[in-house]
């Protein structure tokens, strides 16, 4: 079956087409991988080459499992100090990208290295969030919780999922959350403008009680207001918070980001977090429908595409102090912006040192060179998941190597984008879906969106996600630029470095403190993904 037919058959089933489309990802990637373009002249030679390549990969995977430990430590050392994106809350508006027409397509993909689209091996793993109704029983309510979700889209989404779990722990009734309108994105959208309210209530109906507004009898109660302590264990909610809830009947949580610890939480609660995050918190039909159109335009029947989270935006560069390859004027503009934002505590930053530590967002040129090195041909379609790219050269250095660069700005028409004007969170939701559905997701900065999308892709069956080893990469590209190593040596080193950074299954990494553990939503295994032997 071709991909087009998969789409058509799913589109024919009204209502659930998007669900089906997501489930089909499992199927699509197998088809894609085992039946690469065989229908062209010279296919016999090509076919034999494929068999040799396939045997080579089998051998490679056998070796990889032997070096599992080594692999784990590599994944681990990448997780150095990651900047907390939540601290970026100011009022710079991200301007929409310039209007552009459809980029002219190049001739069909040439012969290419087949493993660039190969998905990680995850045959042993499956999602496991379905619970028996017994565990899902709802106790008598102890009171109502109002939650104000703070931060950008993904921070709010993970925060709300945690609050669903907290409502369960407390046997509380959850009032439909209110959203942040004052974060960096200054988006006035409410819950109902971003999320499908009916779906949210319906999917969670066996788990918690949800009401749209406070009922009459408690509407006059002055809510007890509190920011729950960050990274708390369930016992904090079962103790101190439950007492407050019983006493006041209505509690308002002013923050929802990272209020529940990643680990040390009962399995049923972990599963509920995923049920909320991946099943209940679907975006509105308006957002899903446009996302589906954009994906169809990108695929145009049979194309594969990369979704690139190019977090090279002004706010992030100012916050991190990363000014590599920017002009003096630009670096100064970023510096002034940083000094102007009082809640950004760090002011004097050595951007060069940061970059060498591997914690700067990659520049458009760096990521272009990375993709070229890994073997993506220049006609690869790349969907940019981001707002306006900073710097006088903007996205130019990427487009020079990969002309087929798309974004919602040039894939959607003006009329289609009109309802999303000044709705940055809704645009982020649109991009989220396009990124989730991509063949390969690449992120250049480990922020909230990158975490949420990579976790969701793991949940959907370990879809390929390239996690660049920025620290080693920048060292190598600097050597290349200084003429200290050849292109051949550089590219083979970079390729080897990224062979096992493709989102393969590994259990969520521990850390010395709650804050330093790998994020539950970036890697919901264990918890929501199980190995075939377990149950
Ligand atoms: C919540 O309700 C369940 C089921 O009725 C009950 O077993 C549990 O003890 C209750 N927990 C709290 C904190 O009220
Ligand atoms: C889609 O593919 C067809 C034929 O394969 C081509 O003629 C057309 O230009 C493509 N359209 C877009 C928007 O890529
Ligand atoms: C940025 O890098 C490019 C390519 O290496 C170089 O041509 C350009 O001069 C650099 N610009 C600045 C401001 O350093
Ligand atoms: Mg349910």
Q: What ligands does this structure carry?
A: 2-acetamido-2-deoxy-beta-D-glucopyranose, magnesium ion
Helix percentage = 40-55%
Main sheet summary: 6 strands, parallel
Low-confidence stretches: 1-41, 58-84, 89-111
The SS-based structural class is alpha/beta
Summed over residues and divided by their number, the pLDDT gives a mean of: 83
Number of domains: 2
Number of strands: 13
- CA gyration radius, whole angstroms: 23 Å
Q: Percent of residues in beta strands?
A: 5-15%
Please state the overall shape, judged from the principal axes of the Cα atoms. globular
Distance between the termini: 33 Å
Count of helix runs: 22
GO molecular function: glycosyltransferase activity
InterPro entries: FucosylTrfase_pln, GDP-Fuc_O-FucTrfase
Pathway: Glycan metabolism
Transmembrane segments: 44-64
Walk me through the structure:
Belongs to the glycosyltransferase GT106 family. Keywords: Carbohydrate metabolism, Fucose metabolism, Glycoprotein, Glycosyltransferase, Membrane, Signal-anchor, Transferase, Transmembrane, Transmembrane helix. This is O-fucosyltransferase family protein. One of its GO terms (cellular component) is cytoplasm. InterPro entries: FucosylTrfase_pln, GDP-Fuc_O-FucTrfase. With 535 residues, the protein is of the alpha/beta class. It folds into two domains: 137 residues, Rossmann fold (3-Layer(aba) Sandwich); 247 residues, no CATH class. Helix content is 45%, strand content 8%. The chain is built from 22 helices and 13 strands. Strands 2, 3, 4, 5, 6 and 7 form a six-stranded parallel beta sheet that branches. Strand 9, helix 16 and strand 10 form a beta-alpha-beta unit. Helix 1 runs antiparallel to helix 2 and helix 21 packs antiparallel against helix 22. The structure holds 2-acetamido-2-deoxy-beta-D-glucopyranose (3 copies) and magnesium ion.
């Amino acid at each position: 079956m071709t991909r087009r037919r998969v789409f058509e058959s799913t589109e024919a089933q009204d209502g659930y087409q998007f669900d089906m489309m997501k489930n089909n990802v499992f199927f699509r990637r197998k088809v894609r991988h085992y039946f690469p373009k065989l229908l062209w002249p010279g296919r016999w030679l090509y076919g034999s080459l494929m068999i040799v390549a396939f045997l080579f990969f089998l051998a490679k995977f056998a070796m990889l499992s032997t070096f599992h430990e080594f692999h784990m430590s590599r994944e681990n050392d990448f997780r150095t100090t990651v900047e907390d994106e939540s601290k970026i809350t100011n009022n710079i508006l991200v301007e929409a990208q310039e209007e552009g027409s459809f980029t002219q397509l190049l001739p069909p993909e040439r012969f290419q290295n087949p493993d660039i689209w190969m998905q990680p091996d995850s045959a042993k793993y499956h999602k496991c969030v379905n619970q028996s109704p017994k565990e899902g029983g709802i106790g008598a309510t102890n009171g109502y919780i109002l939650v104000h979700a703070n931060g950008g889209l993904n921070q709010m989404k993970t925060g709300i999922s945690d609050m669903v779990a907290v409502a369960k722990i407390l046997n509380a009734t959850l009032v439909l959350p209110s959203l942040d309108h004052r974060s960096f994105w200054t988006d006035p959208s409410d819950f109902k403008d971003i999320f499908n309210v009916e779906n949210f209530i319906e999917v969670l109906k066996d788990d918690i009680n949800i009401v749209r507004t406070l009922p009459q009898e408690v509407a006059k109660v002055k809510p007890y207001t509190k920011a729950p302590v960050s990274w708390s264990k369930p016992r904090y909610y079962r103790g101190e918070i439950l007492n407050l809830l019983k006493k006041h009947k209505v509690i308002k949580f002013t923050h929802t980001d990272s209020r529940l610890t990643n680990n040390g939480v009962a399995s049923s609660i972990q599963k509920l977090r995923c049920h909320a995050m991946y099943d209940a918190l679907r975006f509105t039909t308006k957002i899903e429908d446009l996302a589906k159109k954009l994906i169809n335009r990108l695929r145009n029947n049979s194309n594969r595409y990369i979704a690139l989270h190019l977090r090279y935006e002004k706010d992030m560069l100012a916050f991190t102090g990363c000014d590599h390859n920017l002009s003096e004027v630009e670096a100064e503009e970023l510096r002034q912006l940083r000094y102007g934002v009082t809640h950004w505590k760090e002011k004097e930053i050595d951007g060069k040192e940061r970059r060498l530590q591997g914690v700067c967002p990659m520049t458009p040129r760096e990521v272009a060179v990375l993709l070229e090195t890994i073997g993506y041909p220049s006609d690869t379609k790349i969907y940019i998941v981001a707002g306006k790219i900073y710097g006088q050269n903007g996205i130019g250095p990427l487009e020079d190597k990969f002309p087929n660069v798309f974004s919602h700005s040039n894939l959607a028409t003006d009329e289609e984008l009109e309802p999303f004007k000044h709705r940055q969170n809704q645009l982020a939701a649109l991009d989220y879906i396009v990124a989730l559905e991509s063949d390969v997701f690449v992120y250049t900065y480990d922020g909230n969106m990158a975490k949420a999308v990579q976790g969701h892709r793991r949940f959907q069956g370990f879809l390929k996600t390239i996690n660049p080893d920025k620290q080693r990469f920048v060292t190598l590209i600097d050597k290349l630029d200084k003429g200290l190593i050849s292109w051949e040596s550089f590219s083979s080193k970079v390729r080897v470095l990224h062979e096992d950074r493709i989102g393969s299954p590994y259990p969520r990494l521990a850390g010395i403190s709650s804050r330093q553990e790998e994020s539950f939503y970036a890697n919901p295994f264990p918890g929501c993904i199980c190995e075939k032997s377990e149950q």
